[in-house]
Amino acid sequence: MKKWIWIIASGVTALAAVNVQAQELSDMQQCLLDEMNNTKADTTIADVRSKCEEQLRSADDEDIVEVDAVEEPGALTSRMKSEQVTQFDPYVLTPHRRNYLLPVITSNNINRLQYADIEGYQDNLEDYEAKFQLSFKVPFNKESLLFEDDKLFFGLTVQSWWQVYSSDISKPFRETNYMPEVFYATSTGWHPFGTNTALVFGLEHLSNGRSQPLSRSWNRGYMQFVVEKGRFVFSLKPWLRFQEDPKADPMQSSGDDNPNITDYVGDYEFTTAYNDGDFEYILRLRHAVDTGRGSAELNWTFPLGGKFIGYTSIFTGYGESLIDYNHKQTRFGIGIALNNVL
C-alpha cells in the first residue's frame, strides 16, 4: 500500500512539473511568436530569445514582489528615521510630543473653585491666559534589544498655564504639569491591508508639583497600538492606573490626591493624525468606560516660515490639566509650534 502511495505521489509531482514546464514553454513560444512578428528583419533569433527570457524573468520578479510587498514607510516612520540621525548627538534634544506656545488660549468656564483658598485668585483669574508645552525624549539603546530597530526611551513633557493677563495677582503660573515616562517601542512586522504597525509599552507619572490642597498626581502603565498608512496614523492607547492609598485627611501629603480621576479623564485615548506636508491635523478622543465622560481635542498646524509653524487648538471636556481633571470646559488657542508630531 505504501508503495502505491509513493508511486501516485511521484506521478502527481512529475505531472505538476510537466505542467509548469509546459506553461513556461507556452509563454516562451507565445513571446517568440509575438517578437518575430513585430521585430526588424535583421534581428537574430538569439536576440529575440534573449529578449523573451528577460521579459519572463521580469514578470516572475513582479509576482514575487507583489506577494511579499509591505507598505512603504509612512509619515511616522519617516519621522523616526529622521530622528535617528541626531538622537545621540549631545547638542541635540529630540522632540517627543509637540513643543509649542499659545500666547492666548480662552476658556468658557475657567476653574475658579479650586483656588478659593488662595487669597485673590478666585476673583481675579482671567478667562484667557497663555499656555506652553516642552517635550523631549532620549533613547537608551543604540543597538536593538529584543527586536530589530526597537528602542527604549526616557521622555519628559512639561505643560504650563500662565495667567499672564491677570495684573491684579501678579501674573502667576496657574498650573504646571510634569510627565516623566519610560517607554519601549517596536515594530510588529505585521502589515494588514498594506499598513505598518507598532507597539509601545510605557510607564508614566503625572504630577503638578503642588502642595495641599492643590496637589494632583497619578501613575499609570499603558500599551499603545499604532497603525500607519501613508500620511495617516491611528493610535489606540488604553492605560491602567496604579492605585494609591486613600487619605484619612485631605490635607495630608501622602495618599491619593484624586481617587476618581479616571472617571473624568478616561481609561483610554484614540488618536488619528494626518500630515500632507504643509498642514497637520490631529484628533484626540479620551473616554471613561464607566461614566461616559472624557474629552475631545482637535489641533492643526500650518506653515509660517523659518523655524516656526502656526498652531491652533480646540479642547472640550474634562482633564485639560491635572487641576482641572474634574472640571468641564471648552478652550480655544492659537500660537506657534517648533515641531509637528508627524
Considering the chains and any ligands shown, give keywords for the structure.
342 residues, alpha+beta, Outer membrane phospholipase (ompla), Chain C, 2 domains, twelve-stranded antiparallel beta barrel, 5 helices, 13 strands, 23% helix, disordered N terminus
**Main CATH class of the largest domain:** Mainly Beta
Order of helices and strands: HHHEEHEEEEEEHEEEEE
User: Would you identify the CATH H-level superfamily of the largest domain?
Assistant: Phospholipase A1
Silhouette: elongated
Q: Number of folding domains? A: 2
Number of strands: 13
Structural notes for this entry:
A hairpin with a 4-residue loop joins strand 9 (268-275) and strand 10. The chain is elongated and about 100 Å long. The chain has five helices and 13 strands. It has helices at residues 2-38, 45-68, 75-84, 121-124, 262-265, and strands at 94-95, 100-107, 128-139, 151-162, 173-187, 196-207, 217-229, 232-242, 268-275, 280-287, 294-305, 308-318, 328-337. By secondary structure, it is an alpha+beta fold. Residues 1-25 and 62-69 have low confidence and may be disordered. Helix 1 (2-38) crosses helix 2 (45-68). It has a twelve-stranded antiparallel β-barrel. The protein folds into two domains: 2-68; 75-337, Phospholipase A1 (Outer membrane phospholipase (ompla), Chain C, Beta Barrel), CATH 2.40.230.
